[in-house]
UniProtKB/TrEMBL annotation:
Membrane spanning residue stretches: 21-45, 255-275, 296-323, 352-371
Protein name in the entry: Putative ABC transport system permease protein
Compartment(s) of residence: Cell membrane
Alphabetical list of Pfam families matching this protein: FtsX, MacB_PCD
Source species of the chain: Permianibacter aggregans
Length: 386
């Protein structure tokens, strides 16, 4: 019986080849679009997802735009539970032209030690440490601009005016697929000394502190202690987990992210309507055939199963092709948006979501036609005209 149902359902699915092909095409486009939109949303949260539970970020409580004194470093380090303290500044320079965007940070202290996900060869790390004008770039940025170790990278400052030639001393690779390989680091000391020569009052300030704690379970207590130490000071602090810090940037564009998520699910609803219409048309055309089957002794359940299986076959083909195409499509998309979404990769759960929604769509689209076909009387069915 199972073989008969499967064979008949397959034959029904391919009876109107053009209609079936267009339906499958619609399914492919819909589930592919869903997969890519989900990947865009995941890319938005990539920074937060890659954040460590053992790292805190301290910034000016008013805004990230305002600096903090370097003198806070030792007071933060003395807080119980703090393992190490590094600091940095957002540089925001321009490489050749403004469209060449990549994140640039001046870093100080054990910054690179606190980010083991940035994998740097030992000799390159040593060369970077010895060269005050040295810089380290992520693999993606280096490959995009064709940089090699030893190249001079001229960057024009925007926040910190002037020309800043850096010598590329190292290229880091991400330890994990979710590691951002687009960043560019150089010595905060080089930035600070240059600033003090040009504008002494702006020297010895940092944009943010990165704090490594010994016990991630104490991050709330340590954050509160740090902020209490700088209450009523010239620059009060706001300390939060690295993940919360990253999510703060996401929140600035949260409306866009929500809109993308809504569109992703609307696409599923649209394809559900398309498939439901296809199945309804198919059942209406075959009402007399289902009545004949019932006259031959087939049960309503068997008749309904034919329709349900036909819907599942169409969805399985469409979703299978979409899942297969999602990966190369995402790779092409990643190259196009790598400046804005440096970590753009299909999440592990995305194909499962596509497959799950395909199963739901197949079931919902076929349930009503299957019930109607199962309940049709023999007389009524044989009188029907497709």
């Amino acid at each position: 019986m199972i073989g008969f149902v499967a064979k008949t359902a397959l034959r029904n699915a391919t009876r109107h080849r053009l209609r079936s092909a267009l339906t499958v095409l619609g399914l492919v486009v819909a589930f592919l679009a869903f997969g890519l939109l989900r990947t865009v949303v995941n890319a938005w949260y990539a920074g937060a997802d890659a954040a460590s539970d053992a790292r805190l970020v301290t910034r000016n409580a008013v805004s990230l735009v305002f600096p903090l004194p370097l003198s806070y470093r030792d007071r933060i380090r003395s807080v119980d539970g703090v393992e190490s303290v590094a600091w940095g500044n957002w540089f925001g320079g321009v490489y050749i032209e403004e469209s060449n965007f990549f994140p640039q940070f001046a870093i100080g202290g054990p910054y690179l030690d606190m980010y083991p996900e940035f994998q740097i060869p030992d000799d390159q790390r040593l060369a970077f440490e010895r060269d005050q004008r040295g810089a380290i770039a992520g693999r993606k940025t280096a490959e995009k601009y064709g940089w090699q170790v030893g190249d001079v990278i001229p960057i024009k400052g925007t926040i910190f005016q002037g020309d800043w030639p850096f010598v590329l001393r190292g290229i880091y690779d991400g330890r994990d697929p979710g590691t951002d390989e687009s960043q560019f680091f150089f010595h905060w000391k080089y930035l600070n000394e240059s600033i003090k020569q040009r504008s002494p009052t702006r020297g010895d300030n940092v944009g943010f502190y990165v704090i490594e704690v010994s016990n991630p379970k104490r991050v709330a207590e340590i954050s509160e202690t740090i902020d209490e130490r700088f209450q009523n000071s010239i620059a009060e602090t706001l300390t939060e987990t690295e993940k919360a810090f990253q999510l703060g940037f996401v929140a600035m564009t949260e409306a866009i992210v929500i809109a993308i998520e809504v569109v992703a699910y609307v696409v599923i609803l649209i394809i559900l309507a398309v498939l439901a219409n296809t199945m309804a048309m198919s059942v209406r055309e075959r009402t007399s055939e289902y009545a004949t089957l019932k006259a031959l002794g087939f049960s309503p359940l068997t008749v309904g199963s034919l329709i349900m299986l036909e819907s599942i076959m169409l969805c399985a083909i469409g979703a299978g092709l979409a899942i297969t195409l999602t990966y190369p499509a995402a790779d092409g998309f990643a190259r196009a948006v790598q400046d804005f979404l440096p970590v753009f990769q299909v999440a592990e759960e995305t194909p499962y979501l596509q497959a799950g929604f395909a199963a739901i769509v197949a079931f919902i689209a076929a349930i009503t036609p299957a019930i109607r076909a199962g309940n049709v009387t023999i007389v009524e069915g044989l009188r029907s005209v497709a």
